[in-house]
Amino acid sequence: RERAIREGSVGLLILLAVALFGGMVLWLRGYNPRRQSYRATFTFTDTLGMQEGTAVRFRGVQVGRVLAIQPGSNQVSVLVEINQSTLLNPSDSLITFNQSGLIGDTSIDIIPQQALAEETTASLTPFKPQCNSQVVICDGDERVGQVGASYEALIRAADAVSGPNPQA
Fold first, then answer.
1. CA 135 from chain center: how many Å?
2. Which of 99, 107, 91, 42 minimizes the C-alpha distance to 68?
3. How far apart are CA 27 and CA 164, in angstroms?
4. Which of 29, 40, 45, 109 minimizes the C-alpha distance to 79?
5. Cα separation of 8 and 101, whole Å?
6. pLDDT values of the chain reduced to their tens digit, one per residue, 168 residues
7. Of 36, 94, 143, 153, which has the most beta carbons under 10 Å away?
8. Euclidean distance between CA atoms 81 and 37, whole angstroms
9. What spatial distance separates the first Cα and last Cα of the chain, rounded to whole Å?
10. CA separation (Å) from 160 to 6, 15, 63, 100, 163?
11. Minimal CA–CA distance to 67: which of 140, 159, 9?
12. On the CB side of 132, how many CA atoms lie within 13 Å of its CA?
């Protein structure tokens, strides 16, 4: 009888350890079952070293991350995840890819061009069918972005200002 209790306790301890390990892995990967997120695809002509996990910012506040980058013949499609399901991004927002900092940190910035009217957005969510792509960016929408501030553009501009190199 004591042996059966001891073996059962060891088995339960092993199951508890596996469950704790699985929970810790999910927590480290950012999984939260209560938080709903939505996705959109932004297309750029150049991504200047963007990687999966790059921050997505709305008005300077990080609200998501880059999930996948798919290069194409004429553009690069970037799948992003917005972690706040209550955040409504206006459809006319300027979407820019920027480099900043000493080591070239990258981010995608969503900059609204106009304020959303409260009465218009009261019934909207980013999820269909309660979403209007003409007003806000909805789950699954695709938008065209542009390259903003980058070191590469700065170097090109400085090279153009300095003029041709006669010794080259």
1. 20
2. 42
3. 55
4. 40
5. 56
6. 788 888 889 999 999 999 999 988 887 776 666 667 888 999 998 887 788 888 999 988 999 999 999 998 889 999 999 988 778 888 888 999 887 766 667 889 999 888 887 776 677 778 777 787 888 888 888 999 888 776 676 777 777 887 665 555
7. 143
8. 7
9. 89
10. 78, 65, 37, 22, 5
11. 140
12. 10
User: What single-letter DSSP state applies at residue 83?
Assistant: S
Q: Are 81 and 39 in contact (CB under 8 A)?
A: yes
| Residue 138: both structure tokens together | 């909805």
Q: What is the largest distance, in Å, between two alpha-carbon atoms of the chain? A: 93
Bridge partners, residue 96, by sequence: 109, 146
Cα 79 to Cα 72: distance, rounded to the nearest angstrom: 13
Query: Any idea which residue has 């990687």 for tokens?
Result: 51
pTM: 0.69
Amino acid at 75: Q
DSSP labels, 12-61: HHHHHHHHHHHHHHHHHTT--TT---EEEEEEES--TT--TT-EEEETTE
8-state DSSP, 85: T
